[in-house]
Specification:
Structural class of chain A: alpha/beta
Strand order of the largest sheet of chain A: 2-1-3-4-5-11
Strand content of chain A: 5-15%
CATH class of the largest domain in chain A: Alpha Beta
Number of domains of chain A: 3
Largest interface: A-B, 91 and 91 residues
Number of helices of chain A: 14
CATH superfamily of the largest domain in chain A: Response regulator
CATH architecture of the largest domain in chain A: 3-Layer(aba) Sandwich
Radius of gyration of chain A: 27 Å
CATH topology of the largest domain in chain A: Rossmann fold
Oligomer: homodimer
Largest sheet of chain A: 6 strands, parallel
DNA sequence: CTGAAAGCGCTTACAG
DNA sequence: CTGAAAGCGCTTACAG
């Protein structure tokens, strides 16, 4: 038995400097600092916010008092007085997916630097939702859901809360002042079709997302629209045949693919997955049905998530630039928060997707 | 060219009921409701909070006024008066991973039902972090990070803010009142080793996580500790040889595996990945080096994420019950928020992992 | 240059 | 049973 390993990992059971609960921490207020620093509360406020000249010596006393008492301004009270809450709401429709994971991670990094917290929330469907998110709590809202009703979005934009929309579908009908991040999904989807077409594929199948409620993408969903438009441009058929949508779980999708081939008799030669997960489910399904990928059927996904590289054959996929998107979102929402009045129309940012070629095509 | 498809997807460009910005929405306050309902603000408050008897007729007038004016209480003001903010902070160390995605998704569902919002935040390393999260903004804090310094955790527990710890590592040194969710990682990790041992594997390799800062898991990390303890029980070697840790990116890990075999000459026959991602990187690496999985080397992962099924061979993995964990976290934090004073010591909840056998072992 | 005071939108102890 | 009033912790217009 070797025990050398224990030296590798440092054992650290911390020794606490002050073992007593520092109950003080929670009750320190402006008044305490003012007393400690022998100035008025007003001065303390101005020092903290840095929006008025304060005599150098006093300033220093205030700063020392803050440090000494470990004072932290009560965020609630500040927000109540019209200051920002420093909380931004992010509404997502697929929290579980790697796509949002990466995006949120980037946003968090940027947000933290700028002093914001990100509240994450699924796009709940009940009436109450918009009311709840609209209680002056959030400085701004980012909508990254494809299902959020346009009417509700318009209602939020109409109020004066800063909004940034991640353009997963067509938002051109939304009027007013808001931010829009075009992530290049539409052009990316067209490129996917182009790529399959160049490979000689003429009988395509689009695999729409799985959702517990069996929701299918609207026609204004950029990926679906890109698939349609590019197919039409190539004169390829675009019918009910070419889409599987409305599945509520993985087995429904697998079964739908089997039915497409064996019952409907549609022998497709190219699969376009709305995301990598769908593409890989499709790939597994057709392999089970006896087809070879990519010999018989080419498969392409979307998101370029980790799993692409672990599949066999490795999945080609359209990469979305989460890092740039996250940064663009935060810059946009912050400038809307700081200067909403200086904008008179919607502001846009365009990003591009990039095809990562692997062996599934 | 077919156009039948357009009937499939309902075109809905919404018609907005009131095209004018309803600026009113944002200024409705207690006073407005009181005036509209011809009662005092006090009564409005009691109706809303339901904590005092209010004459039936008045109550109704208030409710009608609220509905008519679409009144929403200002969450900031409520929170300032000692009510809850209804925000819970979740501190994670790997926002991108599927593990947290699933977990957060479950938590969100439960939280929404209970009227809470979840703020998600990475475990930022700077001094300021604990101060920032401690500004009376959050009703409770859930810590799901393995890197958060124990001292800081103790500091938070010492203040009176409700805390729930996801037990990714050993927290037995933390004293005071807090919630603890034991997710079964330790027993799960021991089971992984058992499973490899039963398959005849005697030369194991643990692949620790990748982190940008090159951090390696502490010895009190449950997965690592489970790996060590079970190996020791079987009399298997437990040395520096048996662990690859501190890699900052995927290529470093791949290279470390190559070096392990070709430079160090350690021919292992079982890989235990700290999570599926690590396990799959390991699997790819050894395949590249000419080994067959599972003939020469067995591989087991942790998390049972989607990608397990798309790998070849399909990856066996230890499943963590995110759904139950999410529910347990929320129940615990809510009971701590509602009844902190009734608890006198830490409360615990134990969950189990479950091995999902596939063909990589 | 600086401080006393009003007020953000709520809740609830208190006095009727 | 009910309302006027104090106060939560801040910010900033206002008056010196």
């Amino acid at each position: 038995m070797y025990t050398g390993v224990y030296t590798l990992f440092i054992l650290h059971f911390p020794e606490f400097e002050d073992p007593m609960p520092d109950k003080t921490l929670k009750t320190i207020t402006r008044a305490d600092i003012a007393k400690e620093a022998r100035v008025s509360e007003t001065v303390v406020s101005y020092v903290i916010n840095g929006n008025r000249y304060v005599n150098g010596e006093k300033r220093q006393r205030v700063e020392e008092a803050i440090a000494k008492l470990k004072y932290r301004p009560n965020a609630m009270a500040r927000a109540l007085k019209g200051k920002k809450s420093n909380h931004i709401l992010f509404v997502a429709d697929d929290i579980q997916g790697e796509y949002f994971g990466k995006l949120i991670s980037e946003i968090d990094t940027f947000a933290y630097k700028e002093g914001y917290f990100i509240t994450l929330c699924a796009d709940h469907k009940d009436e109450d939702f918009v009311d709840r998110i609209y209680s002056r709590f959030f400085d701004g809202i980012v909508i990254g859901s494809a299902n959020f009703p346009l009417k509700q979005i318009q209602r939020l934009v109409n109020s004066d809360i800063p909004i940034v929309l991640l353009e997963i579908r067509d938002y051109s009908s939304i009027t007013g002042v808001y931010g829009l991040i075009n992530t290049g999904l539409y052009r990316g989807a067209r490129n996917c079709v182009r790529c399959l077409y160049d490979r000689g594929r003429r009988n395509l199948l689009f695999l729409d997302r799985i959702s517990k409620e069996g929701q299918r993408s609207d026609r204004d969903d950029w990926r679906l629209k890109g698939f349609f438009d590019q197919s039409l441009e190539y004169g390829l058929p675009v019918t009910e045949r070419n889409v599987i949508a409305g599945c509520r779980n993985e087995s429904e999708l697998t079964e739908a693919i089997r039915a497409k081939v064996q019952d409907e008799g549609y022998i497709f030669d190219g699969i376009f997955g709305r995301n990598d997960h769908m593409a890989l489910l499709g790939m597994e399904a057709v392999k089970t049905l006896g087809f070879a990928v990519p010999r018989d059927i080419s498969v392409i996904g979307f998101d370029n998530s980790r799993m692409c590289r672990f599949a066999s054959p490795k999945l080609s996929s359209m990469e979305i630039q989460q890092k740039s998107i996250g940064e663009a979102i935060m810059k946009m929402i912050i400038s809307l928060i700081d200067n909403r009045s200086s904008f008179t129309s919607r502001i846009e940012e365009h990003l591009e997707t990039q095809l990562i070629m692997r062996s599934s095509i």
